[in-house]
Design a protein that fits this description.
Helix content: under 10%
Number of domains: 2
Order of helices and strands: HEEEEEEHEEEHEEHEEEEEEE
Largest sheet: 4 strands, antiparallel
Strand content: 25-35%
Distance between the termini: 23 Å
């Protein structure tokens, strides 16, 4: 009789039952009313996850480019320039001389370009907290024919090119002169979120790393991270002076959601997180519109986690995105996960 009570076949956990979740969370913990004893195999039956987020992660909102004196100048940290968006929940202090351009839900690439041009304009930022910003130095364009986003420099005295996502000058520059945000309360500043190797450039379609030459055009410096391997002189023409782009914009927050739970211990691992062996499922997320629900049910439930503790008293859930960063969801959007448990390791 005890085993019947302490060996349920189904267990559902959800974020609503965790009163300690913050207003933005990527996980939760449920304490079980009765312990589960001697589980042998566990599988995910269903996961319901709201898609309630923006298209651009807050840790990758900085567009980096070089402004150079000549078409052959070797870029250094002194040539770094940026246009940035602020995190979606950023609150500016009263009296700030400009209105920060926030990350938000974008209706499409043209809407994003309009927001970027506000950020790049004369009153879009300040050179103290963002030492790499120059007012009105670049303009972004959405081409409805090519379905691509390009940028161009506005000053004909300089040459412009994007900075590759893996260019070492980014880290070197930030180590010396960080990009910060004024705190709304208490004074001081907070660093702009930035994950190494993740920039707004790649989201817009400038995807070259800055470490290898593109195979088109004449040889050049790998740091000129554009199709021609050459910087482009600034000017007023969105065609002639546009820096060529190598890819299309990506306005999908994450292609997959990685679901982890410590109760499966070393039963699964993901390529994007070599140190976390608690993977339970990789859930496709790109085919559900914003404000919809992911209803994930594996097609094949014969894959079981078998490295389980002898007793389960609580179940924790953690969600990460493609970049191995927390997949944040507001506390008004509830996550539900349903498990199936088997107590005979040899039976189907």
């Amino acid at each position: 009789m005890a085993n019947r009570i302490l060996q349920p076949d189904l267990i559902e956990v959800n974020s609503f039952n965790d009163p300690n979740t913050p207003f933005l969370t990527n996980g939760f913990t449920n304490d079980l009313q009765t312990a589960v004893i001697n589980p042998r195999r566990l599988t995910l039956i269903k996961a319901t996850i709201p898609v309630s987020t923006v298209q651009l992660p807050d840790y990758g909102l900085i567009f980096w480019y070089y402004r150079l004196d000549s078409a052959t100048q070797t870029p250094t940290t002194n040539n770094l320039k940026t246009v940035r968006l602020f995190p979606r929940n950023y609150v500016a202090p009263s009296g700030l001389a400009y209105t920060p351009t926030l990350n938000r839900f974008f209706t499409g690439p043209s809407d994003l370009v309009a927001q970027l041009n506000v950020a790049a304009a004369t009153s879009g930022d300040d050179g103290t907290r963002n030492p790499y910003w120059t007012a009105g130095d670049v303009v972004f364009t959405w081409n409805t024919t090519t379905q691509q986003i390009t940028f161009r420099g506005t000053n004909a005295s300089y040459y412009y090119c994007p900075v590759g996502s893996l260019d070492a000058n980014i880290a070197a520059g930030l180590a010396t002169n960080g990009i910060t945000m004024a705190n709304a309360v208490g004074g001081g500043t907070t660093n702009q979120p930035q994950i190494a190797g993740i920039t707004l450039n790649t989201r817009l379609g400038y995807c070259l790393s800055g470490q290898t030459l593109n195979n088109q055009g004449t040889p050049g410096n790998p740091a000129y991270a554009c199709l021609t391997n050459r910087p482009v002189i600034g000017g007023s023409s969105a065609t002639t002076n546009a820096v060529p782009v190598d890819n299309f914009p990506n306005l999908i927050y994450t292609g997959n959601i990685y679901l982890y739970t410590s109760i499966v211990m070393n039963s699964g691992s993901a390529g994007n997180n070599a140190n976390n062996k608690n993977l339970l499922a990789v859930i496709p997320a790109s085919d559900v519109p914003n404000f919809g629900f992911i209803q994930f049910q594996p097609n094949n439930n014969s894959v079981y986690a078998t490295k389980l503790p002898e007793t389960i008293n609580r179940i924790d859930i953690q969600l990460l995105d493609d970049a191995n960063q927390p997949y944040l969801i507001g506390d008004n959007a509830y996550i539900s996960v349903l498990f199936g448990i088997n107590y005979n390791k040899d039976s189907p």
